[in-house]
Design brief:
Helix content is about 45%, strand content about 20%. Strands 3-2-1-4-5-10-9-6-7-8 form a ten-stranded mixed beta sheet, sandwiched between helices. The chain starts with 5 loop residues before the first strand and ends in a 7-residue tail after the last strand. The protein folds into two domains: about 130 residues, 3-Layer(aba) Sandwich (Rossmann fold), CATH 3.40.50; about 160 residues, HUPs (Rossmann fold), CATH 3.40.50. It has twelve helices and ten strands. The chain is of the alpha/beta class.
Amino acid sequence: MATNQRLLLVASPLMRHAPAYDRAAALAKAKGMALHVVAFDYLEGLATASLVDEQALAVMREGYVKQHREWLETQAVPMRRIGLTVTTEVVWVQHALDEILIHLREQPFAMLIKELEHESWWMRAMFTPLDVQLLRACPVPLHFVRKANYALPRKILAAVDLSVPEDQFEGFNDQIISEALKLALQCNGQVELLYVYDLGAMYEDAEGYGEHSFFFDSSLARTLHEAQGEAFQDLAERNGIAAEHRHLRMGDPAKVLAVFAENHDIDVVVIGRYHHRGIGGFIGSTAERVLYKLPSSALVISPEHSQG
């Protein structure tokens, strides 16, 4: 573990205590890391008020930032009482993503923690929320907290994807499991392993499907099913996942994953984020689809991540 690494909690600008605070403090304690809490403020009305001169606006903005900074300090007090090193910061900035990425480039943060903001599907279709922007651009493991029944997660789900060619992201599924196992060790939790595959999509991608698209080849389907099962068992075996904690399902990955997490009281789902190009990136990856369906929190990693 890198002793100079810290956890970064991106706080809501609304000055309210959210489950992400409790999760961030608990993880910092479990990992033996310091915690930096930062809020990015920008009030449209205050920023563009036309009836007040620029000097008065600057005073008003500074007053708001000062109030928020003092509020964050009150949230840090109980964290420091349990032995954590906690620093706080408030930044007045219109585009939070740019400033977050600057923070992540300039300082050695091991993980970014943030409350998942609820956004309706039509709002997500018209605008790209900060959470989705972070999902696509964050260079460190990204922990979205939806709720935290327990400050430290007890049940952790490693969601793997064996449908992606291994030569494209070699060892990534093993990395997802490794991150889940490390988190479980730090939190004294239990890891479940899940692979959901879409047999229909695989059948479409199979060689020769275009020539026989109106006929369902049961032998091909059986071959695909058996191959996925064997690959999953091999993956679980080499990572030491006991048979009773292995779960293989068929269906739409995002939907099945959400139902599984609900039915098994999962606290955190560890899921991979792949880099998409072209229209696939515009439509959104499985991770983006899962993000707003999950009843639990999510830890999103990409192939280049290495978490402490």
